[in-house]
């Protein structure tokens, strides 16, 4: 089952998010206070982002974060899959594939592109994304953080 997070999910979300942002799937750790701001935004509004819990047999198996925006490159709405974390004991159960099918159904006819990033070392995730039709982009992405 896939559901939006609720206020009472804070502790479970922060534990999984912290595990994700201290794993080999990411380039660098993200402070817990930043992860807490993501949670707070998600429970207060779904305009910019949504956080989902992935559940299996009534147990929390993982989480996902999506961001929504408009792209001038394709002239339409896009969904960024920012985080997708599956607890180790639930991996290879098809939850990633199920989550992407959920997104395809939910945003059918309204979104022009799904987009995500993956660390090059995360080969299992990259293989899944390619099987699902994602393609590599041949250009550099850059960021400038602000306080």
From TrEMBL:
It comes from the Bacteria. Keywords: Acyltransferase, Transferase. PANTHER family: ACETYLTRANSFERASE. Residues 1-147 form the N-acetyltransferase domain. GO terms for molecular function: acyltransferase activity, transferring groups other than amino-acyl groups. The keyword Ligase does not apply. This is GNAT family N-acetyltransferase. InterPro entries: Acyl_CoA_acyltransferase, GNAT_dom, YpeA/RimI_acetyltransf.
């Amino acid at each position: 089952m896939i559901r939006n997070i609720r206020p009472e999910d804070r502790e479970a979300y922060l534990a999984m998010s912290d595990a994700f942002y201290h794993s080999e799937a990411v380039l660098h750790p993200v402070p817990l206070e930043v992860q807490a701001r993501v949670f707070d935004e998600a429970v207060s509004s779904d305009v910019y982002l949504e956080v989902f819990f992935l559940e299996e047999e009534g147990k929390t198996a993982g989480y996902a974060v999506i961001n929504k925006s408009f792209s001038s490159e394709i002239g339409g709405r896009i969904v960024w899959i920012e985080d997708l974390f599956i607890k180790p004991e639930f991996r290879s159960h098809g939850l990633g594939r199920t989550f992407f099918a959920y997104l395809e159904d939910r945003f059918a006819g309204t979104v022009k592109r799904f987009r995500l990033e993956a660390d090059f070392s995360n080969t299992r995730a990259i293989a899944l994304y390619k099987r699902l039709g994602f393609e590599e982009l041949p250009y550099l992405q850059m960021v400038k953080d602000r306080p």
